[in-house]
Every structure is written in structure tokens, then in C-alpha cells.
Amino acid sequence: MKGPGMAGRRVVVVGGGFGGFHAAREFMKAVPREANVELILINPTDYFLYVPLLPEVAAGILDPRAITISLPRTLPGVRLLLGQVTEIDPTGQSLTYADPEGHSGTLAFDQLILAAGSVHKLLPVPGVADHGHGFRGLPEALYLRDHITRQLELAAATDAPAERSARCTFVVVGAGYTGTEVAAHGQLLADLLARRHPELADQPVRWILLEATDRVLPGLDRRLSRTADRVLRERGVEVCTETSIRESTQNGVRLDDGRFVPTRSLVWCVGVRPDPLVAATGLDTVDDRLAVDDFLAVPSHPWIFACGDAAAVPRHRSGGLAPMTAQHAVRQGKVAGRNVAAALGFGRAARYRHRERGFVVDLGGRKAAANPLHLPLSGLPAKAVTRGYHLLAMPTNRLRVAVDWLLDTVMRRQQVQLGLVRSGAVPLDTASPEVPDLGVAYTGPESAGRAQPATPDTHQANAQERKARHGSE
């Protein structure tokens, strides 16, 4: 298993999202099995989450397991390390991590791919962090489904008109991909749930979608925006452009135009920001994303690569940076994986070239908006393209997803709340939306194995480990 001059090389991928997953898979394809190169993937969960279908989990269409891709099964030969990286020493080529039970460890590396992803973007709006919930991970999707069900059940049980109205009002802030799809699927789910309660026969169930810019899906083709806007309004969703919130309280939200909306439900979909780990590296950043060259390498530390939401990838044709979307993270991950392999002597490095291939937006029911290869579609053709795209983009579980879609078409959707994820387990201000906050950092002995920051002695030990693995190289 030894390649010439490659004894004991270690590559670490931080993050198992779109960028990290495809980087690891592409690296394993490029490196011969006989090469003595170790690839370690550090991720908080043992699965890659196909985030674009998350709204359909919240709507009860898809089983949560259908959009979770097993990392050990789909990445053979990759060593999975469950945990979260807490510190990276770029110069010393080492990192510190904490596992799910709070035990800490350090790891030396020869090459690093930083694909830590992103977290919720918080704005200085009073009360949002206390009363709002995001939509980035499975726990939040499961919570939202239960929350919608619970609010309508509580609304049906009360005789107070004001409380009933507030519980039947749902506010979504941000009309990008996530907010638009959450509002579209959420409205259909709420309408379905309300029909089983005769007490709510004359009670309007309001969905309010707020967007600070002048249209939904800002930044996309205006034809997609018009399609999504029309579909939402036809269903009764109150689309409020050039509007946001000024304050959130336990009883509702105050909009920036002065109106107060009584509600118990605030879904925060304003956008994302790079994982705080990026800034903690101390490396150069652009718009809080790690500055990289055309090969996705950090110029000052060429043994570090970045992709996905963590990377500031130049967009040469139109200027600026590549958007923080799944399709670009996938393509960047593949390039990063191949380029790291090339840095170890396997294959040739290639530049990343940004190209838009169109977008798809699922609006629930038989509705969607899509522009594959910049051809605008709506209605059933867009729905077919949208679902076909997702099936092709998923590494596995395609049959499970297709079966769930078929069952949702021919059978009545399950309409119960499980209560497995409560409000406190999915705080908006979290660095790990994919992991529920259970209030317990670890389950081991009281004083054993707490995660600690790295020390100079730790980094010196890592340097000695690298030297020992590489011999006299």
C-alpha cells in the first residue's frame, strides 16, 4: 500500500456537506488504493444531508432518513471521525476537535479541505434569537412540522379568538430558496391539518412571507421570481416585499412599517454566513469566507483548500464570488478533491470555473419554478424537472425518495406530532444546526474528556507526529 515518496500522508476533510462529501469521494477516486494515504472526514453526524429536500421533510412528504446519505456506506476507505472541529492551526498543520460525548482530540494533517459549511445569519433584531427558529438541519425540520401541527391543535382547542388567530398565523422572514419553499410547503401542510378540525372551519390560516428586497427569490431570474410570487399569492400566502421585522416578542412580531402581527411562529430564513471556524483560522477572508485561488487553495498556505460556503471562490466572468448554493458546493468539492490528490502526486490540478446551470424551486403540490440551462419553466414541466434534478443529484436513496413521493400522491399524509424535538433543542443562534441542542455536552464521566483548546505542547506533539510519519522526507 505504499506509493513512492508518499509514506503516511494524511488528508483531513472538515465537514460532510455538499462540498466535503464530494471532495472526499472525488479524492478517493483519484488516489490509487495501493497508495499509503489516509483520508479522514470530520463531521458532527454520520450522514450527508441532502438539504434541498428538507422542506418536504417538514411538510411530512418525505421520511427524514430518505434524505440522509450514510457516510460510511457511500465513502468506503474514508475514516469517519464524529465530532466538531474547534480549532485549526494552519501553520502547524494540526486541528483540535470534540466528539459527540465532549471528549477532545488533536489531529495532524498534511493536506486539509475546509468545507465547514454555514450557519444562520443573524441580524440585530431584538427578540429574534429568543423566539425565532431557523431551517438548516433535520432537527429544525422535524421541529417545524411538529410546531405547525401543535399550533393548529391548540388553536382548535381554545375559545379565545385572539389566541386562535395568533396560533393560526405563521411568519417566514426571507424569501430566498429556503424561505420560499418553506412558505409554499408549510401553507399546504397547514391547510391540510386545519381541515380535520371543524373548530377552524371559519378561521383563516395565515402564512406571511417577508422579504427585504423588491421580489421573492432575489438574485435569480426574474421569471422564476414571478412564477413563485404568483403561485404563493394564488394560495393565499401574504407576500410582503420590501418588508422585514423590527422586533420579535412572545406574542408576535412588529414589522418595520409599524404593524404588529400576533403569532406564535417565526421561521428565520434570512440567509446564511460561513461557519465561525473560518474566521477562527486567522487566514485571509473575503466577505467572511476563506480567500482561495482558482485552484481552491489558500495562497499563503497551499496545503489548505476550501470549498462550498466556507470558500470565497472568484467568479471571473461576472465578477464577485460564486454564490453559496449546493450546486456550486458540489462542483467545488469535486475540484478540491482532485486538486488535493494532485498535490500528493496523483493526477493534475485544475482551475475551478464558475458556470450557472439553472435553478429549481419546489413550490409544493404540482407547482414548481425552474430554468434548466436558462429555459424558464413552470407548472408540471417545472415540477418534473425539479424532481428529476433532485433524484439525479442525490448520491443514493433515490428509490426511497421516489417511493415517498408516490405514496404522498396516492395515500393520505400522516398528520401527527411526535414531540421528539422541542423548541429549546433548536436555538437559532447555533454553530451546529444539524445537531439538536440537548443541553448536555457529553455523556461520559463528570470530569473526564472535556473538550479543551489546543496548547503549544499539543501543536508540538502534532509536528513530531508528522515528522515521525514522514521519516526523513
TrEMBL record:
Biased composition (Basic and acidic residues): 464-473
UniProt protein name: NADH dehydrogenase
Pfam families per the UniProt record, alphabetical: Pyr_redox_2
Region (Disordered): 432-473
Occurrences of domain FAD/NAD(P)-binding (ranges): 10-333
UniProt-recorded Gene Ontology molecular function terms: NADH dehydrogenase activity
Source species of the chain: Tamaricihabitans halophyticus
Keywords assigned: FAD, Flavoprotein, NAD, Oxidoreductase
Alphabetized InterPro entries for the sequence: FAD/NAD-bd_sf, FAD/NAD-binding_dom, NDH-2
Family from the record: Belongs to the NADH dehydrogenase family.
UniProt xrefs under Gene3D superfamilies: 3.50.50.100
